[in-house]
Specification:
heterodimer, A: alpha+beta, eight-stranded antiparallel beta sheet, 18 strands, 22% helix, globular, B: mainly alpha, 4 helices, 0% strand
């Protein structure tokens, strides 16, 4: 088995000579801990969607890489992410999703925080009935905020706090999809579903971003979206995916279609793109609907895929929304045995990361190269793992 | 245990924090010692703050007047 640090030189070679990431990046706790610090905590990772907290005061506790976080829509309407921990004794503040009517009150000693993280009350901190103390400076004891940014409704976080600004890190993708820079309306309950899958999160990225597998795993697509109708999307060091030139709109029984995103442009009449926004967000953009899949790394060999579908308007026909969600659910379900099979395959000690097809596997190699590059940069900076004991 | 104590305990058990604001304020109003008054006012204020209860500003003002709150 590979040891920490893994040798990533083969991953970084040109695709015709490269190997995929070593097995240890899928099965070894120590290797994955280092990798997680470099590519999940150290970059802009998808955590949730803003639609998870649609109203002021909505709060959702979320664990990410084992860290307890709190997603909140503050009084001012801004979506913020905090460590879900009281500054007093480290108690978890919010245990279940709920509405914060006023302040976030710690259930232990009742220290209270505003929804923008300020410490606003410290009951009995100076003795019974005395709520101030010379050594308790509330301005220094607000909730620990995690750097966050909302784009395409996805709440991205940078746990390490030192990644380049989101707009800079994702500039190429934002520009590529500027035609789709329109308001997105979450399709509601039936447009939100999950898959709990027994694989490392990277395998879901790898499977999503290439079209090579489509005719074998999704034969239903062959009738209208053949392999030759797809193209690879490769932006070295940034993102990768696939596009189609024969996007076909879903139709209701009476021939209705979803409304287009306004002024999206003729280019997208028959085209659509599916891009993995590294590290863990899978995005789809089409003329009439979009989706975001957030890959929750729930364990070295467990990933929870959170799927959200969006439309160009808020009043989309419910039956069509359900039909569309069912269609995507069916497509995504077809991928499950593949990613789970690749996870089990990583226990084969002779597997060397795999030989890429230079013609078809560019998007996957692009992703592996990105992972390797981030890990090498992390090692060069000699940074300790994000969760190292102090 | 007097009636107010019983109602406070009952509200705690029921998780009725809205009622706790009123009940703790009532306890403060019936207390004699400043320490007891401020203890009860603190509880009333915290539960009011938690729920954006309309009495929160007035409770805060009373605590501040006693030098017990910022």
């Amino acid at each position: 088995m590979d040891q920490t640090p893994t040798n990533l030189s083969a991953v970084r070679r040109p695709i015709n000579q490269a190997r995929g990431l070593p097995n240890a990046h899928y099965i070894d706790d120590a290797v994955i801990a280092e990798e997680s610090a470099a590519v999940l905590a150290g970059q802009w990772a998808g955590l949730a969607v803003a639609s998870d907290v649609p109203e002021v005061g909505d709060a959702v506790p979320i664990s990410f890489l084992g860290m307890p976080l709190l997603l909140v829509r503050s009084r001012s309407g801004v979506v913020r992410v905090f460590q879900n921990v009281c500054r007093h004794r480290g108690m978890i503040l919010v245990a279940e999703p709920r509405k914060i009517e006023g302040a976030i009150r710690c259930p232990y000693h009742s220290w209270c925080y505003s929804t923008d993280g300020k410490l606003v009350s410290t009951p009995h901190v100076g003795g019974p009935g005395q709520n101030t103390h010379a050594d308790i400076d509330r301005s220094l004891l607000g909730l620990i905020e995690v750097r966050s940014h909302v784009w395409r409704d996805v709440v991205w976080i940078n746990l390490s706090g030192d990644a380049p600004k989101f707009e800079a890190a994702f500039a190429d993708l934002i520009k590529r999809w500027s035609d789709f820079d329109k308001p997105l309306y979450h399709g509601g309950a039936e447009s939100r579903f999950q898959f709990d899958i027994n694989c490392n999160w990277k395998l879901a990225v790898e499977n999503y971003c290439e079209s090579y597998h489509l005719p074998w795993i999704h034969p239903g697509l062959n009738s209208y979206s053949r392999l030759e109708d797809h193209y690879n999307i490769e932006n070295p060091g940034k993102f990768s995916g696939q596009g189609t030139e024969v996007y076909r709109q879903l139709q209701s029984d009476s021939g209705d279609v979803f409304p287009d995103f306004p002024d999206v442009g003729e280019k997208w009449n028959d085209a659509a793109e599916y891009i993995a926004a590294y590290p863990n967000v899978l995005l789809g953009a089409q003329r009439d609907h979009a989706f975001a899949i957030i890959l929750e790394p729930a364990g070295k060999d467990r990933t929870i895929e959170h799927v959200h579908i969006y439309y160009a308007a808020s009043d989309i026909d419910e039956n069509m929304r359900i039909k569309n969600a069912d269609q995507w659910k069916g497509v995504f379900a077809e991928d499950v045995f593949v990613v789970e099979g690749m996870q089990r395959g990583r226990l084969g000690s002779g597997f060397d990361g795999g030989k890429f097809s230079p013609a078809m596997d560019g998007p996957t190699h692009n992703f592996h190269d990105w992972v390797a590059q981030k890990i090498e940069a992390f090692r060069a900076n000699d940074k300790p793992p994000a969760h190292a004991a102090e | 245990m007097d009636d107010l104590d019983r109602r406070l305990l009952s509200a705690h058990h029921a998780g009725d924090h809205w009622a706790l604001v009123t009940l703790y304020a009532k306890a403060a109003n019936t207390a004699v010692e400043i320490e007891a008054i401020c203890f009860y006012l603190t509880h009333a204020y915290v539960f009011a703050l938690e729920q954006s209860h309309p009495d929160a500003p007035a409770l805060h003002a009373r605590l501040k007047a006693y030098g017990r709150e910022e």
